[in-house]
C-alpha cells in the first residue's frame, strides 16, 4: 500500500511541481508589472472585479414615464389618504423629496403637474 501511494505521488508530483513553478513565475511577472501577464491574470482571476472581455447584454432602458409609474401610483394613493388632488399631493411630495430625487424624475413629475 505504501509503495502504491509513493508511485502515485511520483506521477502526480511533476505536474504539481510544474504548477508551483508557474505560480512562482506568475508572481514574479506581476511584481515586475509585466503588462501582458497582468492583463491575462486580471482577465482570468479578476472577473469578479469587472475584468472580462465578455459583452454584457443589458435590458433596454425604460422610458422615464415607465420608470416613475410606481411613484405616480404611490402619490395617487397618498392623495386619497390625505383627501387631496393628485397635483396637490405631487407638489407636497416634491417639496419634501426634491433634494433626493434625480433631476429627470423631478422634471417628469413636474410635467405631469402641468398637464
How would you describe what is shown here?
The mean pLDDT is 83. The protein has helices spanning 2-31, 35-45, 64-82, 86-97, 103-114. The protein has 115 residues and is mostly helical. It has 5 helices and no strands. Helix 3 (64-82) crosses helix 4 (86-97) and helix 4 runs antiparallel to helix 5. The chain is elongated, with a radius of gyration of 31 Å. The protein has 2 domains: 2-49; 64-114. 73% of the residues lie in helices and 0% in strands.
Task: Give a nutshell description of this structure.
It contains five helices and no strands. With 115 residues, the protein is an all-alpha fold.
| Class by SSE composition | mainly alpha
Shape: elongated
Low-confidence stretches: none
* Average pLDDT figure: 83
List the domain count as a whole number: 2
How many helices does DSSP assign? 5
Distance between the termini: 87 Å
Beta-strand level of the residues, as a percent range?
under 5%
Rg, alpha carbons: 31 Å
- Major beta-sheet overview: none
Q: Can you lay out the helices and strands and say which pair or pack?
A:
Elements: H1 2-31, H2 35-45, H3 64-82, H4 86-97, H5 103-114
Helix pairs in contact: 3-4, 3-5, 4-5
Structural key phrases:
73% helix; mainly alpha; 115 residues; elongated
